[in-house]
Amino acid sequence: MDILGTSLRVCVDDLDTAIPVYERLTGAQAQRFQRGGVSVAAVGCFFLMSGPEAELSVLRKITATIAVSNVDQAVDDLKAVGGEVIAGPLAGPAGRTMVARHPDGSIFEYVDRVAIT
Description:
This is VOC family protein. The protein is of the alpha+beta class.
């Protein structure tokens, strides 16, 4: 699996207040999008998330988002080491996504930029 980078997930009460802080810290402009009922801002290596607690409680279980060159290869590699695919691969706003549980119990989201055909 070719890991291209990692994004940390941060749940915040007020996205509009948090964005300028993270933009200043990272020197990056926020890119905003919705994920269900959750508002998300990608700022540098951070995903800031704000929304209903019922949805955030699920998202908090995911340790980080890992960018890979190909989600299908990530699935194969994770299964080879005893990992378990929980959801996906599915089309997402940034590419295909997949959520997997590693053998140690950690849960990660994997994302690539490959379009589903």
